[in-house]
Amino acid sequence: MSNIxxxxxxxLKVINIGLEKFYQDLKEQKVQVINVDFRPTxxxxxxxxxxxxxxM
Amino acid sequence: xSKVIYEIRKNTYYDSVTLMLISKEVExxxxxxxxxxxxxTDLNKELAEKLNILTDEIKEIGPNDFFITLLADENVQIEDxxxxxxxxxxxxxxxxxxxxxxxxxNSALENQPESNMVLISVAGEYAADEARKALEKGxxxxxxxxxxxxxxxxxxxxxAVEKGLLMMGPDCGTAIINNVPLAFANAINKGNIGIVxxxxxxxxxxxxxxxxxxGGISQAIGTGGRDLHEEVGGLMMLQGIxxxxxxxxxEVIVLISKPPAAKIAEKILKAVEGIKKPVxxxxxxxxxxxxxxxxxxxxTSLEDTARKAVALSKGMDVKDFEGFxxxxxxxxxxxxxxxxxxxxxxxxxxxxxxxxTLAEEAIQIVSKAVGPINSNIASNPELKLKDVNKSEKHTCxxxxxxxxxxxxxxxxxDPSTRAERIVQEAADGEVAVILxxxxxxxxxxxxxxxxxxxxxxxxxxxxxKAGKHLCIISSICGTERDxxxxxxxxxxxxxxxxxxxxxxxxxxRLAGLILKEITN
Amino acid sequence: MECSHICHGLYKRLLxxxxxxxxxxxxxxxxxxxDDNQQLITFLNAKRPMSPNSIxxxxxxxxxxxxxxxxxxxYFSREIVEVKDSNIKFFLKESELWEKGPNLSFRRDNKVNIxxxxxxxxxxxxxEGKKDGIYPLIGSLExxxxxxxxxxxxxxxTSNRDDFIKQRFIKFIESYIEEDLVKLSKNSVDIIxxxxxxxxxMDDFLSGIMISRIYLSYYLxxxxxxxxxxxxxxxxxxxxxxxxxxxxxxxxxxxGEANDYVKDLMVSFLGISPMKVFIDNxxxxxxxxxxxxxxxxxxxxxxxxxxxxxF
Lengths: 56, 520, 311
What we know:
Chain A is built from 3 helices and 2 strands; from the N terminus they run H-E-H-E-H. With 56 residues, chain A is of the alpha+beta class. In chain B, the strands form 5 sheets. Chain B has a 6-stranded parallel β-sheet, sandwiched between helices. A 5-stranded parallel β-sheet of chain B has the order 10-9-11-12-13, sandwiched between helices. In chain B, helix 10 links the parallel strand 11 and strand 12. Chains in contact: A-B, B-C. Chains A and B meet through helix 1, strand 1, helix 2, strand 2 and helix 3 of A and helix 5, strand 4, helix 6, strand 8 and helix 9 of B.
């Protein structure tokens, strides 16, 4: 079974990154969801962020 | 044979959500008959006694000590229970009132290791990175953000295809997976129709009409607005088609998109050609014959797409629908009544939309009646509005486009920009008909109609004072299970003198009829 | 970390002396410090409503993730609170003073509106309230009190473990209706501390019922002294019967001191307020804890029914 069809057969468990409204809406519908309090890595400095990601 | 097992942790405090979780989960463990989890208050100890699971040690603890006591089969080991409880305590799985919000995708995964979908709506420049990380961890992804480069989109989708994962977006506003609405989507009945859509409000309108007609959705996969561009090559639509083909719960497949480049259209249609399940294709404004060559049904509007899909899902005859729910007489009556009240200068159409695809469909239908329509989304440069804040002759505006949303939320979240425009249009004495959409569902404003009504009433009054009759027609894209109250919404609009039609297509069609009559 | 609010009483103390405390318990959105008077000072993050004897910060950070742990020493001074072991500093200078006392200066709404709002409260409790706390016990009050039918609508059943508490619960409510101070003290001792939770469900219920008495006594122009007396009787014997956190909550509630969500709710309930605001406040209270919000709201609902039924 493909991964997508596997998804169709499982319970949806969501990680929300971004607009908190989407997280609240899913919570309201009793969907299992966790919200990421997103902060750009290295304070938004993209060059720094890509260097950091190479380390991780 | 059963025994009492207990665990005591002095001066230890767990938040209430965790305690409730442990309480419920411990009872579910195989071999456990009775369980009590709580703090060592006299009352709780009394309860433990009544349940015959009080031990001497627990009798000794105080109200600030945590305990678990349970009755279990002989073969159940305390170590296993403790291990399980510890796992639950550190996992903090359920959404707690304390709403733990981890700072990164990785920490989120640590807390919710069985996650399978990541919904991304951070600024475009960060969205691609987060999506890549998620795909690499084997998670399905939906990117609501736009402003992701097309190169990134292609790379992400290729990665997703490689791993057999969903990569919905970027610029994917709507999806319904396992009957869960994601981002801007409606509460739709469960059923056997599966959708792959490259258009957010297009998908919303189709699902809403399916629901209204008594049909239901198995899945609605979004692909993002650019999936069928040449550079991306329809990667996600093809992936979605494969998945729906193999999905036993999907018996009818629906494809929705703006007209793709000819090569891509061919690729997509070839992919659905051999499928045993019936397929309905709406390449909005696309050529019917070309589509039907591949043995699939072509739809002429979003409503028609839904109607055909529902008919197929119920094994009924498939018919083209290009009319109205109301009878011809009733429609004639409305047209007459509206025109009678207008003065001779009123002749122009103004479409004010929050949903992009709904605006496109309106343009397509109304232009059949009045000729070319100016717009901020016109592909023909001659019809592109010079100043988006000033309508010219027949005009249709999509308020969700960049020029209106820089530094401001999308009109489906904040209806005020469009509402203001209604009053502006009313001041133009040559305006005859205003056409609008109201999109309900999750993600959107909690009462778009309520927010807009004061401006509608102001506009009508203004027009009346100038001796004009402003004809306002709208449709509501929503279902009875959406968080907004659709019945009240319709009622309030009608009380304010707005003509509410059952679908966007019918609303546009009615507008077209009225405008045509005016010019006659 | 910048603090947004500090409880006025706490601030007044810090003006005259510094003191230390020990971290008592840590959660994601809050942590408690036991001070040198054996009282709990609660630190809240931005997600939580401001509460009595608390300090609230402006950020939505998780205290767990900051490395704060039980038993760490906390140093309190006028401008800074420091948890030295985790190198965390809370800056108090810019924080707003918060009054924990009940808000008893609102414009009273009329009886009809209040009963309408009370009915909505019942409906919303029935539809959205959590049924894992004190809710199953409400059914046992069928014969003791009018106006509870709406709560019985939901399909929940009491488990047999609730049986032993049911009789005592009925006795408590009856002595509450009778306003018999001696019986009240005795009967509350038989139920305090019952239930899952750091604030056991029964305690949340009692908090709700006591808060409703304070606010309703003000609304109806009754003698406040009497209201305090009744609540005092309820918590008279509470020493060591329940968790420290809950003991403090009960003490605050007995004098009408509660968090912002509960305060806002009571003011929009008994004061002139749009229905939407009242309902929003209801939802906020319902969202507290796991069942705490529901249990407290049940206490407010039943307390309100009891008092309003006799006027």
